Amino acid sequence: MNISTPYPVWYLLLCIVAGAAASWWLYRKNKIPFEDSQKWQLYILSGFRFLAVSIICLLLFNPLLNTENSHKEKPLIVVAVDNSQSVMANKDSAFYRTTFADNIKKIEEQLGDNFEVKYLTYGEKITDGNNITFAEKQSDYSTLISGIYSRYENNNIGALILAGDGLYNKGVNPVYEAKSFKFPVFTVALGDTNHQRDIRIKKVKHNEIAYLGNTFPVNIAMVGDGCNGEQAKVSIIYKGNEIFNKNIIIDGQNFAADIPAVLDAKESGLQHYTINVTRLSNEISYINNTYQFAVEVLDGKQKILLAALSPHPDLGALKKSIESNKNYEAKIVFVNELAKITDLKQYNLVVMHQLPGTTNSVQNILNNLRQMQIPTLFIGGTQSNWQVLSSYLSGLRISSSPANENDAIPIVNGSFSLFSLSENLKSTLANFPPLKSPFGNYNNTGFEVLANQQVGYVKTNNPLIALSKGNTWRVGVICGEGIWRWRLADFSQNKNYDVFDEIINKTVQYLGVKSDLRRFRLVNFKPSYLENEPLQLDAEVYNPSYELDNKNDVEFTINTTDEKLYKYTFSKTANAYTLNAGILAPGIYTYIAKTMVDGKQETINGTLSILPLQNELGETVADHNLLGQLSQNTGGNMFYPKELDKLVKQLKACEVIKPIIYTERETTDLINLKWLFIIILLFMLVEWLVRKMNGVV
Fold first, then answer.
1. Which regions of the chain carry the CATH code 2.60.40.1930?
2. Which CATH class for the 302-510 domain?
3. What is the value of pTM for the model shown?
C-alpha cells in the first residue's frame, strides 16, 4: 500500500508548513490557563490543529491510495458420475449402489484442503450434486462435456474425474468432444466388460408414419450373450393379437441377428405395437426382452408441386425441407412440363418459382389456380415478371424491372400473428444471407408480413415474406431468390436445418396444404412422446372472421387406463394458448380439450401415447476402451472403482494441477476514505471542546 499524488512530492512540505503556521498562529500566545504541569496538553492541542490543517491541505492535492491484494484460487476437481441404468446391468449392482456411491462422495473430504470439489451426475441430462440413483434412461457424454464448460468456464479446472461405463446412446463420441479440454480426465471404469447371460432387443427400426392400406417394414436387432444352443421366439403384438412371430436358434455365445418384419397399416390413427422375446432362465435382465413402439397411420400424403421457370438450387432446398415433414411429398416440374398437368386439384399447394416469367407468363395456369383456389406460394427472382405477378397478389403491388434488384436481409416482423415463430428463428433469421429482391415500389394493403427487407444498414417496410390473410384463395410470396443459401447458413450456424425447415414448413402449412376451417384447434401436438419428453402443445381459437381470439379458457384433461384424470388449463399467450403438462409415465392415454366458441362448447379428443425409453439396456457390456482412450488423450489415467485411493494420491501428486494466484490492484482517492474524515473531525472536535471548557473560543 502506498500514497501517490499527481503533484511533485515537495508540495507536501507546503502542507506541513501550512499546518505548522496555523498551529503557531493560534497558540503563539498561551491564552489557555494551563498550569506548568499541564503544558503537555497545550502541545497536544497544537498538534491536533497541526495535523488537521496539514491533512486538509494534503487532500487539496488529490492524493491517491494504491493497494494491492492477492488471493489464491484452489484448483477445481469436477467429479461426474454416470447415473444411467446401464451401470446396474451387471452382477456388482449392489456394490455400485452402496459402497461405490459412498466412496465417491468421500473424495471431497480427501481433497478438500488443497482442492475445490464439485459433483455432477449425468445421463440424459446433467444434475448438480451427488444424488446417485442409476435411474437415467439415456447416456449423453456430449451434454456433459459442454455442460462442464458452461458451468465452470471461468474457474481454474484442475481435472475431471469421470466415472462411467463408457456406453453412450445420445450425442457424439466423447473422445472427440474432449479434445478441447485443457485439463486431464481421470476415468473410473464402472460396469462389467464380461458378457452376462442375456437375450435382448438392442434396437428397433420402424417408420414413424405409414399410410392406410400400405405395408411398412420393422427391423428388430436382437442380441444374445451366453445363450448358445437355446431357442427363442420373437413376436409382435397388436391389440392383444400376435401378428408376427419367428423362432430363432441362438448359435453362438455372442449372437446377433436382424429380424425383418412387414406389417399392414389397416387402421388410421396412432397404432401401438409390442415386441416380445422369449425369457430364458437366469438372464441378468428381463426388461430388455420387451420393446414398445407406435406408428401413426395416415389416410394419404399431401402433394406439393414445385413449378419452376428453370433449374435452380432453391428447388432442391425447398424439396428437402418440405419432405422433412413425412406428411408431405414434393414434385419438381419446369415450365415446359407445366402445361401437361391436366389435374391441378391433385396438389394441395403449388409453388411458382420465378413464375410468371418475363418470357413466359403461364397466365392460363395462374387463372386456373385462382379459379380453383389452390393455395399458391410465389417465389420471385431476377427472371420474374413482377407486373403480371402483382395482378394475382390481391392486396400487394410490386413495381420493378428485372434489371433492378437489392440484396435484402430478412428481418422478422415482431407483430406477425398468422402462426407462431420460435425464439430461435427470430434471433437467427437476421444472420442469414440476403436474397436477390426487386428494387421498386411496394404497396401492401392485404398481406401480413412475416419478414421485412433490410438493405445494407437500412431497415425498410418492404415485405420479403408475406402471406395473405383471407380464407378463400390463400397466397404467399417470397420477394427474392436464393433461399438455398439460408439452408446452408442454418447448418453452418446451428449444425441442423431446424430454422430453415420451420419457416418453410410453417408457411406451407398455413397456406392450406389441407384446409382447416375449425374454429378450435390443437397445434404443435404429437400423438406420441418418449417418456423423457415434456408434453408441450399449443391451442388456437378463431372468431367468425377467422381471427385469433383467446378471451375464453381452454381446458385439457388426460385420462389414464385406470381412470385417473389429470386436468390442466392452457396459459394464454399474446393471442393463442400454450400448455406444458410436464413428464408423463409410459402408457396409452385419452385426452379431451374443451373451450367455448360463440357460446357453444367445442371439444377435441383423441389418443396419446407415452413410449418407454429403452436405450440403456440395449447394450450392457461396458466399454472400458473408450474410457482409457479418453484419459490417455487428455493426460489422465483410468482407475477401477476399488482404486479411488490411488486416484486421490495421483491427483495430489500431479504437478499439472496448480492453484492460481490473483493480484488485484486498486487505486482510491484518499479524500473518499471515511475513516480519514472521522480522524480530522475528532482532532478538531477534541481541540474545540478543550478550548471551550477553558473559556477560550
1. 520-611
2. alpha beta
3. 0.52
